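CORE FACILITY INTAKE
Project code: CF-77B
Contact: R.S. (postdoc)
Sample description: multi-component assembly, two entities in total
Requested service: structural model of the whole complex
Turnaround: standard
Below are the sequence entries exactly as provided by the requester. Do not edit them.
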Amino acid sequence: MPDNFNTILGLYKEQYEKPAMSDKAVFKMKQRMEQGKKEKRLMAKKKTYKGWAIAAAVALAILILPNTSGTIAHAMGNIPVLGGFFKVITFRNYQYDDGRNIADVAVPEVTTEGIVDSSAAETGRKTAEEINAEIRDITDKWVEEFKSNMEGEGYQNTTIDSEVIATTENYFTLKLTCFHAAGDGYEENHFYTIDLNTGEKIELADLFKEGSDYKKVISENIKKQMKEQMAADDSIMYWVDNEEYPEWNFKEITDDTSFYINENGEIVICFNEGDVAPAVMGTVEFTIPKAIVADIMN
Amino acid sequence: MFSRGKKQDTKEEIIEQTILKKYNSYYRMAMSFVHNEADAADIVQEGAYKAIKNSDSLKYVEYAETWIYRIMMNEIYRRLDTKKFDSIDDEIFVQIQVEDKYENIDLKRALNSMHAKDKAVIQLKYFEGLKLDEIAYILGEKLSTVKSRLYRGLKKLRCEIDDCGMKGDEHNAG
């Protein structure tokens, strides 16, 4: 009975073709695709160091497509107000793509909201200005460098992005990530942590009692973690106990060492590429257990 | 004629464009198995993410479309697995909750009693217009297996509708 069969197949088809993805679901799909690109880029970046320089360089160069970046900018703009006062807005202030030189630069700006009239709020406004000025200096420098490299023959990709990490009751941290690829990749992170109670930008020293040797305590713990990780996994390598190049070995954190406070209230120490490990390890972080620093913290 | 690098960036672009063009096809396929918008959207989102992330492992750009289908199909199976459908193995019937989706009771009954992969074959062939060898690649099966699935699936559909009483008949078809 072919006629009857065709009717039923038609009905089946009609039902089958009814569902359509919602705009929201499509938006999320696009976000996931961007995520996939990002992760692919990181994988390619690691391969670069293993000698696949040419293939990776080109793969890296196509990561950001201009038509999709608008959605990211939009998503970033929706970040909620932090601690009831601070807010981060992202401006995509530089974009370029000629197939060979690709830049996608999103600059975050910390803003303060509302008319809170207190000394903490006043401090907060100043802190925000200082941080914004510093971020502008960094991003301007990266864009300049990108532009000056454009005259060359090679491929290059510059990406600057940011995220708010680890918002706790007392602190929030803005992370600025700068990535540049030309043959091999280089990533650099900057962290800005604000104390939501005082409105001040905090340094590592502010967290500890005066006179305490927090640098030593933290550094010893980091060395211990490095050794443990290396013992557990052959692919992990840090500059610690290295007899060949003892001068490269990690000795102690400094006043400039980056950090943030995670949602568990633990201090996380962050190093840029090449600081404490071969560049192939990328940027690395160490979470310092609370118990280690409990005695000396404020 | 192209350097190795050039080929790779073309792949990612082609995959991205294909997904942006075809996402509703993947979504429909997912819906026909999970019958739930959230799960179906999740499948497509995960599949799209994996396809982009692994775009370098696509060997021939000509097959981008089937390659993505294969990833999506695997996502569907994975989802069915975790949703305690026991296994998507071909001997398992997918008991779906079509409810009011299919007004036609015969059609509903036919789809309910069809093997998951047989159903996929029919849908890919008749609704997505794919060739049998492409479907074989998507399902990771031999062409002959796909042919018997098509035969068995159609027979099921036809018989449920015409009420020809094929109880136990599917054993003879494969």
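Facility notes:
- The mean pLDDT of chain B is 77.
- The helical segments of chain B are 4-34, 37-53, 64-82, 105-112, 116-127, 132-139, 143-162, 170-173.
Invoice: internal transfer
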